[in-house]
Specification:
single chain, 310 residues, FAD/NAD(P)-binding domain, 19 strands, binds flavin-adenine dinucleotide
């Protein structure tokens, strides 16, 4: 008979790492799966993290490595495998990866989310050199500077409002003549004296050599192109949770996020969600690690109630 784990953790970003730390301390028989070679998740792709308490200005890669080293010190390391699908056999969750099948009593989904890209020239090359996907994370580096925000939904409008308090000038570039953002957010946006709307326009490229120097815009109606000088570009065109493999297994909201509150409890008993993958207001490292701890606590409480758990 195949071994049944107490807990399987899916993903080794901040939420998964914190879950591993708590699971190890709770002495749960745990298996930890991560699809990438390195732990750290999105944070490993981030230049500098300036809002994690106690570590001002730490490099994203460095923070990810430090967190993973903490879990390793307590005896847990992720196995490099991608989860493809999950099914239930009674109370047991059966996890299928490309190579293997694993069985567990509880599962923590910590597979994160990815910021959508504009897919324009200069975006990749100038990543971390003025191109950002997170105003709350990187806005502070653009004090009294000029920035462009690309997008037209709530995230873009909220980012523009947030940046208007830090930056000298904010241009919000949107391809339509109307925002999709909620009315209340639009009201705050239009009340900002230093935000200028650039309607009916798309960012065609991000220009600069060693750092962002501006964007090339195209007017969608006239086709006219122009260069807009800027020190930074914040891309807020959406975020995609990594939940394709969960469709039909656990309840997702319309955006594809796993529906779960602070305790991580999902629609499937024994399955918990932590970090960016779940429905929540603020997707940050500090909220992801808190979720990881809460999810293990919830998993422990669930296990206590199982008749065959010793
Ligand atoms: C450019 C950028 C800059 C940021 N800067 C900051 C900042 O300064 N401060 C801050 O607080 N936050 C910042 N964030 C946000 C922060 O990185 C996230 O909120 C945080 O990483 C979420 O952690 P997580 O563990 O929930 O998910 P993730 O970090 O996304 O980790 C999920 C992990 O799950 C793995 N995975 C996915 N699917 C599977 C699968 N099927 N099987 C196995 N493994 C899987 C992924 O490979 C990944 O390693 C930034 C994000 C980005 C993109």
């Amino acid at each position: 008979m195949q071994e049944i784990y107490d807990l399987i953790i899916a993903g080794a970003g901040p939420a998964g790492i914190c879950a591993a730390i708590y699971a190890s301390r709770a002495r749960l028989k745990t298996l930890w799966l991560e699809k990438k070679f390195a732990a750290g998740g999105q944070i490993a792709d981030t230049g500098e993290v300036d809002n994690y308490p106690g570590m001002p200005g730490i490099g994203g890669m460095e923070l990810g490595e430090a967190m993973a080293a903490h879990a390793e010190k307590l005896g847990l390391q992720p196995l490099r495998e991608t989860i493809r699908s999950i099914e239930n056999e009674g109370d047991v969750k059966v996890i299928h990866t490309k190579k293997n099948t694993y069985r567990t009593r509880t599962l923590i989904l910590a597979c994160g989310a990815l910021h959508k890209k504009l897919e324009v020239p200069g975006e990749e090359e100038l990543g971390g050199m003025g191109v950002s996907y997170c105003a709350a994370c990187d806005g502070v580096f653009f004090k009294e500077k000029t920035v462009v925000v690309a997008g037209g939904g709530n995230a873009a409008a909220e980012d523009a409002v947030y940046l208007s308090r830090i930056c000298r000038k904010v241009y919000l570039v949107h391809r339509r003549h109307e925002l999709r953002a909620d009315r209340v957010i639009q009201e705050s946006l239009f009340a900002c004296g230093n935000v200028e709307m650039v309607w009916d326009s798309t960012v065609e490229s991000i220009e600069g050599t060693e750092k962002v120097e501006g964007v090339r815009l195209r007017h969608v109606l006239s086709g006219e192109e122009r260069f807009l000088p800027a020190d930074g570009v914040f891309i807020a065109v959406g975020i995609t949770p990594g939940t394709d493999f969960l469709k039909g297994y656990v309840d997702l909201d319309e955006g594809g996020y796993v529906i779960a509150g602070e305790e991580g409890i999902t629609s499937v008993p024994g399955v918990f969600a932590a970090g960016d993958i779940r429905t929540k207001a603020l997707r940050q490292v500090v909220t992801a690690v808190a979720d990881g701890a809460n999810a293990v606590h919830s998993a422990e409480q669930y296990l206590q109630k199982l008749s065959d758990f010793v």
